[in-house]
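queue> holo job accepted (zinc ion)
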Amino acid sequence: MNCFDQVEFADRSEIERIQAIRLKNTVYQATASRFYRGSLAMAGVKLSDLAGHEDIKKLPFTTKEDLRNNYPYGFLTMPVEEMVRLHASSGTTGSATVVFHTQNDLNSWADLVARSMHMAGVRQGDVFQNMSGYGLFTGGLGIHYGAERLGCLTIPAGAGNSKRQIKMLKDFKVTVAHIIPSYALHLSSVFKNIGVDPKSLYLRVMLIGAEPHSSEIRQRIEDIYGVKAFNSYGLSEMNGPGVAFECREQSGMHLWEDAYLAEIVHPETLEPVPDGEVGELILTTLCREGMPVIRYRTRDLTRFIPGVCPCGRNHRRIDRITGRTDDMIVLKGVNIYPMQVEKILMSIPEVGQNYLIELEREGFLDQMRVKVEIRDEYFVEDMRTLQALQKKITTLLREEILITAKVDLVEHDSLPKNDGKALRVVDKRSQ
Ligand code: AMP
Ligand code: ZN
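queue> job finished
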């Protein structure tokens, strides 16, 4: 199977025709694995039941627990000798899950990443610096091979070592960078410390993703670096980057539907939500031979954006991820997503680049403390100014999350930072 063909601009009927064929192939292939042989037999689905893409509904879901319980080889459809690479999820929740790839799988994946980067305006001749962690994380090698496939001079910078990153950006006249949004903001303070204006570089495109971020964060990144920043979505269970990506319109991410069959369901009833409503994204690989995954519950919350994108691509768009079903905070009976807090904070000009939500228990009462970095120029000695700011943040937050959080204003660059995905919530209630 090869995903690199002319389907990028295919019409809906062509996409759905491809999906129907590939779904059948995928299910046929999957029955060669120990896990699916069992689960598909139990569901009593025969290949002849799968006529069109909508017949996906007849198949059982696959969960992260299924992947963990069948660790390491229970999902393989071929002998392990046929596999040439493995990756693992970053394990933000629980232990990591491992995914194996054949050479064909890696080729299809690289094609999808190349297609995605091309859609965002990256071209042969661009100099591309990949500032995400290499190793098991898919944002390293996954993006790397796509960039090479596209013909970019590709710099495997990896994460961290900010001064060296900046030197390479300058010395090699880097035009495109892939970077985790929270690291992009942190890096901007290193630029400031060494007195270099990020806009004086050659950067014109940044690919940002791998972690939830608000449109306010994207706006900040674009302003700081003087670039267009494109949202990139993926997860290791579905290869990694290259699942959904923004086009130049920047109005939602096209999900490559020739390679992934997507559904959005209510996270509890598991029934499809009405078009345009938010629910849990369910994905099925359509181009993977070594380790196909069917109806995977991503736990990511998003919606299909109704309507057609002006760019002319007919692969449906998903909205930016608003949270995960498992990162919802329940506090005093109210459900809150960290992204709601971020949206408010990042819309306040005095707020700097980083924040941390801490959940505490005082006696029998749960409490949210929000530590907020304040920009240097606003971190003044005048207590009254700071108190006014603290009050403003508390009020704006209460309007959004209906809870009065304790707000601590802290100095720029004082909160802990990660080279990888940012840690936004620390739950101290059970400690
Ligand atoms: P991993 O498999 O460890 O790379 O983690 C994948 C998870 O990262 C996804 O399931 C999402 O929760 C999150 N993620 C990846 N890309 C994005 C993005 N562009 N926006 C929001 N969350 C993302
Ligand atoms: Zn588009």
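queue> The longest strand covers residues 351-362.
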